[in-house]
Amino acid sequence: MCRHCDHPDAREDHERFLREQIKDNGWVVVGIDGDRLYPPWAYTVGLTELGRPELVVTGMDAPQSVLLLNSVAAHFVHAEPSRPGEQVRLRDGPLIEFVELEQPSAHLFKAWEFYEHELRALQIVHADERGRWPWNPAFRGGRGGQPVLGMRAD
């Protein structure tokens, strides 16, 4: 059984916690642990309320994911969000490209519960240390790989 099944109040407590964090900070980062079949991923919840797309990153451990998502989210709150296909070299971070998610509901579970049809999302795809992207066969990066959850913009 899962934690929510064993403790029915846990789901309500978790949602209350998330809503408090969103109210206090503008957004919250939710992480999903990887397993033998799937790499970890993390995403924001709350940017939708600010008129911005939610963000997701795959194949990165939790501390790196939180740092990256919070950094980009903070920028998006004060500036226009990046467009799909846009590449950015982060200060003290990787080269990234934004990819629009085709089905945010498939990966951003809590964000979908909160916002449903309003939900838009961008994936922050990161290049490896040699500047190769996950769509390059020579890519070497990301814990368990880095699935790309949408189609690249031309």
TrEMBL record:
It holds the Pfam family DUF4262. It comes from the Bacteria. This is DUF4262 domain-containing protein. It comes from Amycolatopsis xylanica.
